[in-house]
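WARN no homologs supplied; continuing
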Amino acid sequence: MVRGALAALLDLERDIEVVGHAGDGRAALELAVKLTPDVVITDIEMPEMTGLELAAEIRRLGLKSRVVILTTFARAGYLRRALEAGASGYLLKDSPSTTLADAVRNVNAGVRAIDPELAREAWTEPDPLSDRERKVLRLAGEGLTTTSIASQAGLSEGTVRNYLSDAIMKLGAANRTEAARIAREKGWL
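OK structure emitted
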């Protein structure tokens, strides 16, 4: 419903044409490869592939499409990760539709479009987690055992325990569940 409403709102703009929309990240990537849009608008949390993974894959493939993340996650950690993944814009869903249309125009012109309040917060607290710690902690937060995490991540159980221990220590958490909760709240997962 939200996807359709956004497409309809953007289609009302004389200088913006919506060329497609997808229900999950993998389908969005397939459309981006096929249609090569100037701008791809995505959420962070989607089935099959997150918006952050989508932005990174678009960059890895060398596609010319620029990515705008439109989300409810007003977390500085997500903004930083989005920019690191190659996103050119990061807006909150409660922004006025004119803000989104202006962001699409600006990003298409090569200018970043970032929610100003969130931009100020983004650099106040750095993400202490490495990519491996983040991946292992995300799986632990889903309730997987050390053995299951090791199997999914292609690591030994000892290495998984080390990554979890490091993440717990860096976040000042009492255990893996609390570490995952803290990291999720900060937008680092």
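The longest strand covers residues 66-71.
OK
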